[in-house]
Automatic annotation (TrEMBL):
Xref: SUPFAM superfamilies: Protein kinase-like (PK-like) (SSF56112)
Binding, ATP: K38
UniProt record similarity statement: Belongs to the protein kinase superfamily.
Pfam families linked: Pkinase (PF00069)
Domain of life, per lineage: Eukaryota
Organism annotation: Paramecium tetraurelia
Domain Protein kinase: 10-282
GO MF annotations in UniProt: ATP binding; protein serine/threonine kinase activity
InterPro entries: Kinase-like_dom_sf, Prot_kinase_dom, Protein_kinase_ATP_BS, Ser-Thr/Tyr_kinase_cat_dom, Ser/Thr_kinase_AS
GO cellular component annotations of the record: nucleus
Record protein name field: Protein kinase domain-containing protein
Keyword annotations: ATP-binding, Kinase, Membrane, Nucleotide-binding, Serine/threonine-protein kinase, Transferase, Transmembrane, Transmembrane helix
Transmembrane segment boundaries: 352-373
Length: 375
């Protein structure tokens, strides 16, 4: 089933994703370039029409200001009186939820394939930190970081879905009367409907990284908000996070996740703290890599002996022999033995010749004696 909106053709038979506010389909423009189209129906929410329209307008206002390689870009938007259409950059790798399921099917036991999940978590961490740094420079908080909202395009991880995002200046103006988004990713402050800061995104990112490192296992669970809060409080009274991540080889990620999942916002790492830790880690990694390369070059440097030409003076023969690790006395002994062998051979040759002459003389004498007897 196809639908034409503006200069786009929406293929409603290809569903890319579905969220609380709408569905996302594959679309193409007149140049056959692919886009993702999010369709939000305002008819299905007559009771909350005004609130939903306000959320969508804010999402469009935020997305129109964003231009970062790790954030999904918006191309166009359109409202036909019933539905809102948001045309966005298409990401060919799906989302992180899909990626984790693929890894689980290939490597079902994260404990024995820890490096695979760690590699994914590290790659996601770099890109999402970059996107958050950009958002905060624009005074925007996301408020809905989760696996489904991190899309993959050509190996890059991009933050998407700004339906719950806010400008920092709007936080106090619009107190929340209900919990929006996915509770298991939300900070204790959001769950309790308390005052919060950009560090609420840091908590969500910590949950996401933990989930990646553990192969899809969430750190906290609950049938409702109260159960979830209780589980968070009970586990964080102990060293639960640290103990669960003991098998993680990347100690930087292990440390950062444990410091991101802290109930008290004052004690929780800020984005600035994360960037400082990351930069420090990168500098150390580069130094270690440089040292390893230097050490490898030293170990692997081939031995190239100096060439010896016939132009070397004779008085330097001893020095040359030392460089070639051949003792001079060996050469002298070899020459003496060779001369001795030649002398002995000559003597033997001389002795052999005299013996032949004597033998010939004896044979001649015998022959003469036989002739005289016959006569």
């Amino acid at each position: 089933m196809y639908q034409c909106v503006l200069n786009y053709t929406i293929n409603k038979s290809i569903l890319l994703g579905k969220g609380g506010f709408g569905s996302v389909y594959l679309a193409q423009n007149e140049l056959n370039q692919e886009y993702a189209c999010k369709i939000i129906s305002l008819q299905s929410s007559q009771n909350n029409y005004k609130k939903l329209k306000q959320l969508v307008d804010r999402e469009l206002s935020i997305m129109s200001t964003l231009d970062n390689q790790n954030i999904v870009k918006m191309a166009h938007s359109y409202f036909d009186g019933k539905n809102i259409y948001i045309f966005m950059e298409y990401c060919n790798g799906g989302n992180l939820k899909k990626k984790i399921r693929e890894l689980q099917s290939i490597y079902p036991c994260p404990k024995f394939y820890q490096q695979k999940y760690e590699k994914l978590a590290q790659e996601v961490f770099w890109d999402i930190i970059d996107s958050l740094n950009y958002l905060y420079s624009k005074n925007i908080i996301h408020r809905d970081i989760k696996l489904e909202n991190v899309l993959i395009h050509n190996g890059k991880y991009k933050l998407s879905d700004f339906g719950l995002s806010k400008f920092l200046s709007d936080i106090d103006e619009e107190p929340m009367s209900s919990i929006l988004g996915t509770p298991c990713y939300q900070s204790p402050q959001l769950l309790r409907q308390q005052v919060y800061s950009p560090k609420t995104d840091i908590w969500s990112l910590g949950v996401l990284l933990y989930e990646l490192l553990k192969g899809g296992e969430l750190p906290f669970r609950g049938f409702n908000t109260q159960d979830l809060l209780k589980d968070i409080e009970n586990k964080l009274k102990t060293n639960y996070i640290q103990n669960q991540l003991l098998s993680v080889e990347n100690k930087l990620l292990q440390y950062l996740v444990s410091k991101m999942l802290v109930i008290d916002e004052e004690s929780r790492l800020s984005l600035k703290d994360l960037l400082l830790k990351v930069n420090q880690f990168r500098i150390n990694a580069q130094l270690m890599q440089k040292e390893n390369i230097t050490a490898t070059e030293t170990r692997c440097k081939p031995y190239r002996p100096e060439k010896i030409t016939s132009k070397k003076p004779t008085n330097q023969i001893q020095e040359i022999n030392k460089k070639e690790s051949i003792p001079l006395r060996f050469i002298q002994t070899y020459k003496e033995k060779k001369l001795e062998a030649t002398f002995i051979s000559k003597i033997l040759d001389d002795k052999l010749s005299s013996n032949i002459l004597i033998l010939l003389a004896l044979m001649l004498v015998i022959a003469l004696m036989q002739i005289s007897i016959r006569i």
